[in-house]
Specification:
Distance between the termini: 56 Å
Number of domains: 2
CATH architecture of the largest domain: 3-Layer(aba) Sandwich
Strand content: 15-25%
CATH superfamily of the largest domain: P-loop containing nucleotide triphosphate hydrolases
Order of helices and strands: EHEHEHEHEHHEHEHEEHEEHEEEHHE
CATH class of the largest domain: Alpha Beta
Shape: globular
CATH topology of the largest domain: Rossmann fold
Helix content: 25-40%
């Protein structure tokens, strides 16, 4: 059985690749992390087939984990009342892994970042794999770069199923983990080559060629990302937009008040009553022509001094996400210049 992970770049058609593989005579299971991407997948599947076929199942990851994996095998025994989305208290790290309080809070809610571990400790991994094999022919995971902690180990176990398995993701769009829990896979995203090896060690073939060119970003943007951010990126586009930094007050005012240009902030975009979003939250959005990146004090200094290699890796990934939302022009301004718009 073909088991593959495709490492893609922004705008290369990750979702389209999955959609192109879906057929009416194959039972397909698709897992994705964010609610936004779930809705996007669902909408595009309906657009392709003109309805949502019964043979195609889409889940957000934590819904899949709870309803498909936990409920059939452990619910009658554990009687959990849903998820606790908070980080477990630090004292629980000292508990034996078979102690209920390690997994459940006082209200019998499961700590979201430990359900995958509970399934492992309770010995139901093989049963979950058998259940997937029974009901599906193909297993897809989109946004695989967002899985960490126990959840990454869980996916590597599913990779053992005797079915077609495909993981798709962009290593450099890793902006958060599904389930950070102590030191479990703490350094998973610190080294690209070591990350690749984790898949290879699990019997998953690694593909870095199929989705290596962006259909969204212009050659100028791809060159900027490659040379300045240090993330290799090629373009499939023939048009070329502009990359510019704006400093004069009049032009900044025009951009801020232009609702056709999204303003992307490192954080705190909700404090500005304008058309805006945070860098990391813009991931997966594919509708922006022109994008204005609002640089905070530290990243503006990095931009001005061309010292992007000094940026924290997670911040750099968020900046990469933000820059690669643009289909045409990429504009940079300093947050110091827009403070007057803050509420």
């Amino acid at each position: 059985m073909d088991k593959r992970v495709i490492f893609a770049i922004a705008g290369s058609g990750k979702t389209s690749y999955i959609l192109d593989n879906l057929e009416l005579d194959k039972r397909s299971l698709i897992i994705t992390y964010t609610e936004n991407n779930y809705l996007n997948l669902r909408e595009r599947i309906i657009k392709k087939f003109e309805y949502l076929p019964d043979n195609i199942s889409i889940y957000t990851y934590f819904n899949f984990l709870y309803s498909f994996c936990y409920k059939p095998f452990l619910h009658m025994k554990v009687r959990a009342k849903g998820y606790n989305w908070n980080t477990p208290p630090s004292w629980t790290m000292k508990l034996p892994r078979k102690t209920p309080k390690y997994f459940l809070d006082d209200s019998s809610h499961i700590y979201h970042n430990r359900l995958a571990k509970m399934l492992d400790v309770c010995g139901v991994y093989p049963k979950i794999n058998q259940r997937i094999e029974k009901y599906f022919d193909d297993f897809y995971v989109d946004e695989v770069q967002d899985f960490g902690g126990h959840d990454f180990n869980f996916l590597m176990n599913i990779a053992k199923i005797e079915k077609h398995v495909l993981f798709v993701g962009d290593f450099f769009q890793h902006t958060f983990d599904t389930s950070r829990d102590g030191n479990v896979n703490k350094n998973l995203y610190c080294d690209y080559d070591k990350y690749i090896k984790r898949f290879e060690d699990s019997g998953v073939n690694v593909d870095t060629k199929t989705l290596c060119k962006s259909w969204r970003c212009t050659p100028n943007i791809c060159n900027f990302v490659s040379t300045k951010l240090g993330i290799d990126m090629l373009s499939n586009c023939s048009d070329n937009g502009e990359i510019k930094i704006i400093t004069d007050t009049k032009s900044i005012k025009e951009i801020i008040e232009d609702d056709s240009i999204i303003k992307l902030f490192y954080q705190g975009s909700n404090k500005y009553p304008i058309y805006s979003q945070n860098w990391g939250e813009s991931k997966g959005i594919d509708k922006y022509e022109d994008v204005c990146i609002v640089l905070n004090k530290s990243t503006y200094k990095n931009f001005d001094e061309l010292t992007f290699d000094k940026i924290n890796p997670q911040t750099l990934n968020k900046l990469y996400v933000a820059c690669t939302r643009a289909r045409r022009n990429l504009i940079f301004i300093s947050e110091e210049k827009v403070k007057e718009y803050k509420i």
